[in-house]
Design brief:
It is a single chain. This protein has 487 residues and is mostly beta strands. It folds into 2 domains: 89 residues, Orthogonal Bundle (Cytochrome Bc1 Complex, Chain D, domain 2); 255 residues, TolB, C-terminal domain (Neuraminidase, 6 Propeller). Helices cover 13% and strands 33% of the residues. It is built from 6 helices and 25 strands. The strands form 6 sheets. The chain has a 5-stranded antiparallel beta sheet, with no helix packed on it. The chain binds heme C. Heme C binds next to helix 4 and helix 5.
Length: 487
């Protein structure tokens, strides 16, 4: 038998190299091992040129399940079982998956679409909604937004700045004299909230501004990470200066952690004016089940820091007196229902199992014993989704959207959405409206997608909805553009 005819490319390596250089781009790419893996394993669903087919395009800048390299890596490695994306962890090495992510990024760059353009109009179920950029520049990782009146708002930036917006204009000077924060990982300056009587008599809460932030001690671990924990203070802003500071909550120093994630932290007030704030489990998941520890909890204190007499662990015998609920993983949304006055919390799960909870004094929300969560290794966190004595979420997301800030709709702007919960998702870059009736979520409508990581939601006195984004660091304003005629 004669040997099969060999193409010139391999017959003369040097000539082959020259020809390869002269060949058009696509064939060169075929030499890339990642391109070959893509063609073999992914093209059948995502399209030969990555522009979609049975599954979505990966070059249109739109990512449903997270846009960061770490999100892509996770989705390829563990799959997204709920929607039929297979898991490649068992068949591809980490290096091969990294190669695929690079390959996808290069294709995306070539297509020139980093993210879809910002919409100016949304067509939602009830309204045509106008979208405008409210603050388009000058912010760095904005974390929280709250309104003092129709004209005045406060914004925190995670690196440690408190900013004031007047008449839609961001004061270029941050408020001076706010405390140093531990700006690392997920930590920094987090929540800003105003006293329920902010515009009233200074003798009765007038002018108080509440902040939560990650506070570090001098004590460091061997990698140089200081011990830190969420802390709550209040003060007043006078002539753009932070004054009258009072410390409201500080955890025992023995409970501080050297991790820099899962700090919580939101603040909200109930109709009696008591202050609720959240601390995540700081990466120590079992701590969430121990009411004697501050992390993995929602706390309740009076506005001056004292412990309400009817707190579930008020006497300190079985838990920290400030603890209101426990078994919470990383609560980053806390909102008071405008009618019932109940406290609603949103909480990050791991890869699955983000939750909306309705908080009850002394209740255990189950983390990590019962959860709909899927761990980052693709395994369920717990065999149990329910257990006696542990609360069920009102609603959950799987896969997780990385649920963050939330706010109840109120005011004139969107009357059909009165008392609906607007929630943001960081990872999935989504803004969703949860229609709530009788303490249940009746349906969920996605309002925005792929415009940026949604960190917080705020409502102004008129009822317009504000969306605080990270990457890009801007704030959007949603107003009523007319009732939808569609039915
Ligand atoms: C059997 C079909 C199928 C195959 C094969 C497949 N995928 Fe997917 N993939 C999906 C589906 C379905 C989704 C969910 C989104 C959608 O509907 O397109 C998805 C989602 C994704 C996402 C998340 C997209 C986003 O919007 O956040 C990434 C990244 C991804 N796939 C990469 C890959 C890679 C890389 C391969 C090859 C190793 C691959 N997929 C193979 C079906 C497939």
């Amino acid at each position: 038998m004669t040997a099969p005819h060999r193409p010139a490319l391999s017959a003369n390596p040097r000539l082959g190299f020259l020809i390869l250089l002269l060949l058009p781009q696509p064939l060169l790419a075929a030499d890339d091992p990642s391109a070959a893996i893509y063609a073999e394993k992914c093209a059948s669903c995502h399209g030969a040129n990555l522009s979609g087919g049975n599954a979505q395009s990966m070059v249109d800048g739109e990512w449903q399940f997270g846009s960061r390299d770490s999100d892509l890596t996770r989705n390829i490695k563990f799959g997204i079982s709920a929607v039929g994306m297979p898991n490649y962890g068992p068949t591809l090495s980490d290096a091969e998956i990294r190669g695929l992510v690079k390959f996808i990024r290069a294709a995306q760059k070539k297509a020139g679409v980093e993210r879809p353009p910002l919409p100016t109009q949304l067509y939602t179920r009830d309204y045509d909604v106008k979208v405008a950029t409210w603050i388009g520049q000058g912010l760095e990782v904005p974390w929280a937004l709250t309104f003092a009146d129709a004209d005045t708002a406060f914004i925190t930036e995670r690196p440690g700045r408190l900013r004031v917006v007047r008449g839609g204009v961001l004061d270029p000077e941050p408020v001076s004299g706010t405390p140093n924060v531990h700006n690392a990982g997920q930590g920094g300056l987090m929540e800003v909230a105003l006293d329920p009587n902010y515009n009233g008599d200074p003798a009765d809460g007038g002018g108080w501004v509440y902040l939560s932030y990650s506070h570090a001690l001098g004590r460091k671990d061997k990698n140089g990470n200081p011990a830190s924990m969420t802390r709550v203070i209040r003060g007043r802003v006078v002539d753009n200066k932070w004054t009258d500071q009072q410390l409201l909550f500080e955890a025992p120093q023995s409970t501080y952690k050297h991790t820099s994630h899962h700090y919580g932290s939101r603040i909200a007030f109930d109709p009696q004016g008591r202050l609720y704030f959240s601390i995540g489990e700081r990466g120590f998941q079992d701590d969430a089940q121990n009411p004697r520890l501050p992390n993995g909890k929602v706390h309740r204190i009076e506005r001056n820091g004292l412990i309400p007499k009817d707190n579930p662990f008020a006497d300190g015998a079985k838990g920290m007196p400030s603890v209101f609920t426990y078994g919470n993983r990383n609560p980053q949304g806390l909102s008071t229902h405008p009618v019932t006055g109940a406290m609603w919390e949103t909480e990050h799960g791991p890869m699955g199992g983000d939750e909306v909870n309705l908080l009850k004094a002394g209740a255990n929300y189950g983390w990590p014993r019962v959860t709909y969560g899927i761990n980052y290794n693709g395994e369920p966190v717990s065999e149990l989704q329910q257990a006696e004595g542990m609360e069920q979420p009102v609603y959950y997301w799987a896969p997780s959207i990385a649920v963050c800030g939330s706010e109840f709709c109120r005011g004139e702007e969107f009357p059909r959405w009165a008392n609906h919960l607007i929630v943001g998702g960081l990872g999935h870059e989504t803004l969703q409206r949860l229609a709530i009736a009788d303490d249940r979520v009746m349906h969920n409508e996605q309002l925005l997608k792929s415009v940026g990581r949604v960190r917080d939601v705020a409502i102004d006195p008129q009822g317009a909805i504000y969306v605080v984004l990270n990457s890009p660091d801007i704030v959007l304003k949603l107003t009523n553009g007319g009732k939808a005629l569609r039915q």
